[in-house]
Write a structure and sequence with these properties.
Layout lengths: L2 H6 L9 H10 L1 E5 L4 E3 L7 E7 L1 E6 L2 E7 L3 E2 L1 H5 L7 E4 L3 E7 H10 L1 H13 L3
Antiparallel strand pairs: 1-8, 2-7, 3-6, 3-8, 4-5, 4-7
Length: 129
């Protein structure tokens, strides 16, 4: 499946037109990782933003379970938006596929697409850490 079609299925990008989805698709990578992969570790420098296409991840903070996230959820935004280290450790509990945007690409998407920025900012405000 092409990136534009994958992006169109994800709630964070739902209101974008085809041209906008193509622009984001040009910046994004599709990444598949096996179950058991630690996607990010609490306290590490943030390099990427991830949107879960398929699969489930386990989020923990200070060694304690916080929640599970699956298809459509996104990760890494707090550290990128607030320019700090990751606030949680995220481990893939199943094989997962992600849309991945590096720090620079994430910044470009946030600057160019107000709908995406609004959703990300709302999530940052809602997160408990």
């Amino acid at each position: 499946m092409d990136k534009t079609a994958i992006l169109a299925r994800l709630p964070i990008f739902a209101k974008l037109d085809a041209r906008s989805l193509e622009a984001i698709g040009a910046l994004a990578q599709i990444e598949s990782v096996p179950a058991g992969t630690v996607l990010m570790s609490e306290g590490e420098a943030a390099e990427s933003f991830y949107v879960i296409v398929t699969g489930t991840v386990h989020v923990e903070r200070n060694g304690a379970f916080v929640r599970s996230m699956s298809d459509g959820g996104f990760l890494g935004e707090i550290a990128l938006v607030e320019e700090r280290t990751h606030t949680a450790t995220v481990t893939c509990t199943t094989a997962c596929e992600f849309v991945q945007l590096g720090r620079h690409e994430f910044g470009r998407v946030m600057d160019r697409f107000p709908d995406v920025r609004t959703r990300v900012d709302a999530a940052v405000a809602r997160r408990p850490f």
